[in-house]
Amino acid sequence: MRITLVPQLLIVIVLMCGAGGCSSGDNQQNAQGAASQPTAPPVVPNPDELSGMVSRFYRLLSTPSSPKTATQLSEMLSAHFINAYQDKVKWARDYAFVKNAKPVINDVSNQTVDYTVSYDYLGSDGYRIGWIRNGKWVFVHGSSGWQMDQDRIVSSHLVEIQPGKKLATIAIHSDIAYADGHHTFPFYGGTGEFFVTKDGSWKTDFAPPPTPTPVSQEPPRFVPDHVVAQPAAPRGATDCEQVSVEAVYQDGEILKLDDGRLLRVESYDTPTSSVWVPPFDGIWCDSTDKFTNTDDNESVDLAP
Question: What's the CA gap between 165 and 252, in Å, rounded?
Fold first, then answer.
């Protein structure tokens, strides 16, 4: 699963600052006038204001990209932050794909907001990756008020995957995060990997578990000397497709297709699917929640 990034939001924000990047205007003016002007008393941050800005930031990230959204974000972010994120790969790794964000403010101390946010990365056909991130937003105060200056991300973990709109969500109980932003995690006895590519897109790959060495050879199947007709799609089904199954997991409960999609078999039909030997071909009818193994001429019901 790969999503190509069109970093419109990042481009608009950077263009607002000019080709050379944003300049720290407030800091420069303060430095030039420090010798002639008296020192102003420090501005005391309002915890409700700072926590509200963090919540608004993730709400704006979750909305469709537009010039209005970019303007609102650029007003909240400091020049230091915008300059640091002109690299589209870095922006893609941390913010570009955040959707359905639900931030929780844990604590506000001086100019620092400790937060936890859950969010999704959305792909095609209902593909979804769920994340949880913990971090600390550091604010600075300029002529336009408080601005978000640095996001100190403490941890970021992949917690669940939904392979498709009508497919079951799979919990990821542990993952390993690397400095370059990619993650690895156990997946049905194999290994899954998430990473951001050099062109600013994200991708997930899955490696199946190693094939066990059989204790004894399976006896050859009986092949009749006459042609057996392939089973037809279930009556009333209008959206059936020919598929290939490459793996069977959890005693027949999960069928993994060769394109990475997962089908969940109803528990009362797992005695049938548990003895199927992959790879095999089949017919999947979404409207009737029915899967037919065309190699063995057997059918099972799928969980909706």
Answer: 21
**What percent of the chain has pLDDT above 90?**
43
Distance CA 69, CA 64 (A): 8
Q: pLDDT tens digits for 4-33? A: 334 445 544 554 554 444 544 444 444 444
Amino acid at the residue 92: A
pLDDT of residue 164: 86
Residue of 195, 160, 172, 167 lying closest to 253 (CA atoms)? 167
What span, in angstroms and rounded, lies between the C-alpha atoms of 253 and 89? 38
Side chain identity at 250, as an amino acid letter? Q
pLDDT given at position 212: 66
Is-contact 111 139, C-beta < 8 A?
yes
CA distance 51 to 208: 43
pTM over 0.70: no
How far, in Å, are 57, 109, 286 from residue 60 at the CA level?
A: 5, 24, 35
Calculate the dihedral angle through the C-alpha atoms of 58, 60, 158, 4, rounding to the nearest 10 degrees.
-150
> With 0-12 CB in 10 A as exposed, 13-18 as middle and 19+ as buried, what is 195?
middle
The tokens for 258 are 């060769």
Q: How far apart, in Å, are the Cα atoms of 223 and each of 63, 272, 274, 282?
A: 58, 20, 22, 19
Secondary structure of the chain: what % helix, strand, coil (to 5)?
20, 35, 40
Q: For the chain, which residues score pLDDT lower than 70?
A: 1-41, 211-238
Picking from 297, 252, 244, 302, the residue whose alpha carbon sits closest to that of residue 272 is 252
